[in-house]
Amino acid sequence: MSAAAQLAGKELVPRRTRRFPIAIPVDVTVLRSGVPDSIPGRSLDLGEGGLALVLAGELHAGDPVAIEFRLPNLSSAVQAKAVVRHQAQLRCGLEFLSLSDEQQAMIRYWTAATSLPATAGPRTQVPGPKPKIAETPHPSLRSLLATAIIVAILAATVGWWRWRRSWRELESSITAPAERRLDPASVDNPIRLPGEVVNRLVVHKVEPVYPPQTPQSQLGGVVVLETVIATDGTVAHVRPISGSAALAAAAIDAVKWWRFQPYRVNGRPVRVETTLAIDFHATEN
Length: 285
Prior knowledge:
It is built from 6 helices and 15 strands. By secondary structure, it is of the alpha+beta class. It folds into 2 domains: 3-116 and 144-177, predicted glycosyltransferase like domains (Thrombin, subunit H); 185-279, TonB (TolA/TonB C-terminal domain), CATH 3.30.2420. A 6-stranded antiparallel barrel has the order 2-3-4-7-6-5. A 4-stranded mixed sheet has the order 8-15-10-11. The protein has a two-stranded antiparallel sheet with strand order 9-12. Helix 2 (101-120) runs antiparallel to helix 4. The longest helix is centred in the middle third of the chain and has 41 residues, at 139-179. The radius of gyration is 36 Å and the shape is rod-shaped. The protein starts with a helix and ends in a 6-residue tail after the last strand.
């Protein structure tokens, strides 16, 4: 039974492509809550359709991942997307999803070179000139190997560029919705906030003073003010909405001296519109 079959602990569906045993380092990247998480691992076998490996962390069947590994005797790394098909503890079976033609050529060249000794069979010492003929490389095989190496180098360069571009697109598709929750236009235009939110931003507060000769019927009233707070936390504009005119003037004189912690959107301070209720019941003046 192959290494991939041992991962699931039962008979698996026959593979469409042959797997070859190989033990090489493999870097696996998986997105967890929108954050890339790199997990190191080591391969068990490899084919054009996928590979089996042992990881230093857990994955789950159906997880999309990005993988990177370097084949023996090849200078360029293979970078591709894959999906977890089988998982048992720290062992996983991955199926390639976006393997380009150039990357398939690299794996095909490696598998062909790996299977050459088995295809040729064991060498036997035969007297005569035949051993000398076997020692001379065939011109067509030498040309094929040189072409395959050139194609592998070009494929690795193009494949790496494509993989980086697709990975950036995947990250942007995940983070873009969270960034759109705050309208960038609100950085320049005032945004509306509830009074209870703005009250928590107060860093300096001046209590209003009862104006002299205020009628007894107006004492202890509540004045509601429409207020605009600038990006530096100062009060840019304030006007009364409801309440006694005499108490409103006192409330405005006090609120003009209030200072607030700047409210930020995407890291930038913005102007804020709100309504502030000044309760003269709460003041001792």
